[in-house]
Fold:
Amino acid sequence: MSNCTSASLRQMKAQGEPIPCLTCYDASFARLLEAAGVPVLLVGDSLGMVVQGWESTLPVTLDQMIYHSACVARGRRQALLVADLPFLTYSDPKQALKSAARLLQEGGAQMVKLEGGFSVLETVQLLTDWGIPVCGHLGLLPQSVHRLGGYRYQGRDAASAQRIREEALALQEAGAELLILECVPADLARSLRAALSIPVIGIGAGPDCDGQILVLYDLLGLNPHPPRFSRVFLQGGRDLAGAVRAYVEAVQSRTFPGPEETRY
Ligand code: KIV
Structure:
């Protein structure tokens, strides 16, 4: 695998080459995922749920994100390291700049991800102006779980789909270099993929995205209540590396997600 950058991801999009992404929280898995052909490692604040055992991502702190990001940074060589800005560490642009700077300087991240649309545009612009690459996140926003009333699909009616569409275009305009779309109807994801020049990575957003992302522990079958858009790849006698390779191949051949994993 060659060095993965925003530019190489855009090239993959242009060439119609699906981008398999995974969450990652430590050095050993960073090495394994990279060797299995995963070009993008997301240190997601999902670690609050799958590593720390909380019911949401809200308790995760910036120091914890930096710790896990630095662990992944020591294991990776060429994969792009994206790290989440956790809850309320980017509530205004200046705070976001300080938080993102720590993720890059102390955590070795190469891009930061933040949730939201219109409310974070100024922040995305400021980070980008200071040379910090940004990944947007629209659709189901786990940090807003209490306002959303649970982990529910978003963009199901025309008005909310239109808002997500406008927010996606505005994020790209503000400088976002990658977009994660979580739990939205497949036709909305398909239209956004066509409308945006930046790569659109789906999770619970159907097969017609530029790439897919899963929470690593879901893929490994460690989640007792897996979301219906995920698939367990650690089965049929596969070892860990084999399971991750099977995921990469399924994304590349567009056999994941299938119809069963695309219901909403
Ligand atoms: O925190 C996370 O793992 C994420 C992914 C679900 C995209 O944001």
